[in-house]
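User: I'm preparing a small set of examples for a lab meeting where we compare how different chains pack in three dimensions. I only have the primary sequence for this one, and I'd like the structure in token form so I can line it up with the others. Please keep the answer compact; I'll paste it straight into my notes.
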Amino acid sequence: MEKLTDRLHQYWLLARFDKPIGIFILLWPTLWALWIAGDGKPDWLVLFVFASGVVLMRAAGCVINDYADRDFDPHVDRTKLRPIAAGKVSPKEALLVFAVLCSASFGLVSLMNWYTIALSFIGAFLAASYPFMKRYTHLPQAYLGAAFGFAVPMAFAAQTNSIPLVGWILYLAVLLWALVYDTMYAMVDIDDDLKIGVKSTAILFGKRVREITAGLQLVILGLLISVGLMRQLAWPYYAGLLVATGLGIYQQILIFHFHKPDCFKAFLNNNWFGLAVFAGLLAAYAI
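Assistant: Understood. Below is the structure token output for the 287-residue chain.
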């Protein structure tokens, strides 16, 4: 029994259920999409399926990421104690956990319409292939955005059986947002990544990383304003965007000196960015 408990604990750590920040950052844009697609009243079954799916697929993403990075993680201070890197979970075990999590996610999505089910295969491919991109391109953060944001078109498909233009604009905003916050995250590992040959936008942008991420944040806000105008959302939505703008400025202050702990704080602060937008949406639909 003690051995089983230890195995389950290691799998829990492997899926990073002990670090829920990734769940929240994935959940906020999913909720944005569900509320917009449902005009403030998303279907409760769709909401349950997508919220649960976020938890499961984020966990699956963490597992396949650590499997893909099993030869790199032991050489990086921040990741050397992760279960696979530390030898506490075998690569075969990790693949089994990944398969179980994906199967559970597919069981949930099978409750949706056929359009959503078909899109789920694209989403699963993006999530499973993302961890390998850092070997081949300096833009794995953009690929991460495509994977993480794919819940947005899926949410519209589940809620309305279609993906209108506003859904694709929101998807682009989420993709760019993930690119920004994961670049901030990559700034923490930039020295180790250079040493072991892993690519990232933090390396690609170099000393221009602050200007480029700031410019992308302005584009994201512009896209989110466009979403509000297209859906004729009430003023609280724009108040939420104003708060999100303030948080974006704060993140730029944090990364200004390239101080790694502050770059990590900037990444974590994006949870509040996502919450601010969602709070504005809730209030807009409530009045």
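A couple of notes for your slides: The mean pLDDT is 93. The CA atoms of residues 81 and 87 lie 9 Å apart.

User: Perfect, thanks.
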